[in-house]
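Subject: design request, 323 residues
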């Protein structure tokens, strides 16, 4: 809506200037607050002082000033409101990406995006203000907009100071990471534990933190030796038949009796108790209340245990390891 002199109503024009001033304030907060976080950013990303100066100065300034002319050319020819919206969205999104950067290149690209987005605001505001205020009021309107610069810098210093104070005075947080590591070979498992401790400690120190890696060693894996398999596999085939005794793939079964196998000869085998009319792949496990077992398997298990014990004693005890 315009007045008789073809100017927008004063309330509309001043509303526009105030909104653009707020955007200008926010742009300077995004731009300046980086300078207060030099120490934490360098410690977190591991970048040098030279790289930090490029991020704060040259990388931002070269794109902010260099793209000002082509952006102003576009503002003179296309919808200025839409260009401002695109610019604000761009610098806001790129500011968020700055927080996700994990290195100098990622942070530099994000800062370039911030510079390109913020380069839109000033030329678009000057153009829109010239079409919204008569000459006698234009200086006052632009002064209101430009006051966003010191306000933005001041707020950036205040907000940044609170952020730094909060981070520096906040208590330490412990973030537990819990998992299971399995290995068939005990030496390989020990090596994995040592590497995990070293990697976790180094990563934590690189980010100014500490890491305590506590390994609770549970039951070792139940691994049959080749000599014990060669000794008892024929016994199982004699008891259950050639088709009933199957040498399966290596699994990560870990039970308490695996500790005894480390001290005395041991042999681990599974006894299938699944009824013939059920599919072993879909039947409920033995820890489920829906578990169903075939009692006839008990007799096979007893014969297997007694025959292996007798064969063990008849053969003179534990076999020698197969080279």
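Subject: RE: design request

Done. Sequence follows.
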């Amino acid at each position: 809506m315009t007045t008789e002199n073809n100017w927008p109503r004063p309330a509309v024009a001043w509303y526009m200037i105030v909104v653009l001033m707020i955007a200008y304030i926010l742009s300077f907060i995004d731009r300046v607050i980086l300078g207060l976080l030099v120490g934490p950013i360098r410690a977190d990303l591991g970048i040098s002082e030279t790289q930090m100066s490029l991020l704060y100065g040259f990388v931002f300034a070269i794109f902010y000033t260099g793209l000002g002319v082509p952006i102003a050319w576009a503002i003179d020819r296309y919808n200025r409101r839409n260009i401002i919206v695109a610019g604000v969205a761009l610098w806001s999104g790129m500011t968020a990406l700055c927080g996700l950067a994990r290195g100098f290149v990622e942070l530099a690209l994000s800062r370039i995006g911030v510079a390109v987005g913020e380069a839109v605001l000033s030329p678009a505001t000057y153009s829109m203000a010239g079409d919204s205020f008569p000459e006698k009021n234009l200086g006052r309107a632009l002064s209101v907009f430009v006051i966003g610069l010191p306000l933005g810098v001041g707020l950036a210093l205040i907000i940044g100071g609170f952020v730094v104070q909060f981070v520096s005075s906040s208590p330490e947080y412990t973030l537990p990471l819990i998992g299971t590591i399995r290995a068939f070979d005990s030496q390989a498992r020990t090596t994995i534990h040592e590497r995990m401790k070293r990697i976790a400690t180094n990563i934590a120190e690189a980010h100014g933190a500490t890491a305590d890696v506590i390994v609770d060693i549970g039951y070792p894996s139940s691994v049959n030796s080749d000599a014990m398999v060669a000794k008892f596999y024929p016994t199982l085939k004699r008891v259950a038949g050639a088709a009933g005794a199957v040498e399966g793939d290596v699994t990560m079964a870990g039970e308490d009796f695996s500790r005894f196998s480390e001290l005395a000869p041991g042999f681990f085998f599974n006894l299938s108790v699944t009824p013939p009319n059920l599919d072993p792949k879909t039947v409920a496990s033995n820890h489920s209340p829906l578990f169903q077992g075939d009692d006839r398997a008990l007799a096979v298990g007893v014969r297997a245990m007694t025959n292996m014990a007798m064969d063990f004693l008849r053969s003179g005890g534990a076999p020698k390891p197969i080279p």
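The chain has a mean pLDDT of 82.
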